[in-house]
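User: Run a structure prediction on this.
Assistant: Running it now.
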Amino acid sequence: MLNFSLKYLELLKTRFAGLNLTRILDDQEFYEKQVLDSILPYEQCPEFKELLDKRGVLVDIGFGGGFPLLPLAHHCPKPLFVGLESRAKKVEAVNVIAEELGISNAQAFHHRAEEVLLNRPCVVTFKAVGTVMDYLPALQIPIKDVTVFFYKGPSYMEKEHAEFEKTLSKQWELVVNQVLSVPGTDERRLVGFKPRIVPRGTGKILVKLSDFL
């Protein structure tokens, strides 16, 4: 993964420098905080690995510069990876980066999360986005075989968990709450949720996940 990381960062610092796809420009720090941070849920969380291997589809929402979408796709060549991002320029850049890095099992699309019906069993990831309470209710999910994982920092238990228990625990079950060991970080917490009942979305559905596969 180190060679992959160096090639990735070189693209971000040169060809795509104007898009500010990452604020981390040091080789080692980028490797630890962007690449390793992206793939360690698969390496350290048995539930995450089992679900991804079984369902074979991962949907990464709000991937920004391509994290965890592209490192995970490079690390796990068998599943299919779908990225959803609201900023078209980032979508275009990440698709080019994927091609340059030889990643054929990932593609990014210009859609917001609430516009896509998650009608296939899948794993969903959010990294460096808003709160659990912001995003879980917005997801359009007509089936139960969808598990949603958030990459969170050390403040999750203090700032978000109590609010989740108060507002969403009747609709969603917390199934993973694990601290991961990521070099160069204070703490990385992986939290995963599955629907207790089939959630009902409220947004305008434009496309189905199955259309991307």
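The longest helix spans residues 27-44.
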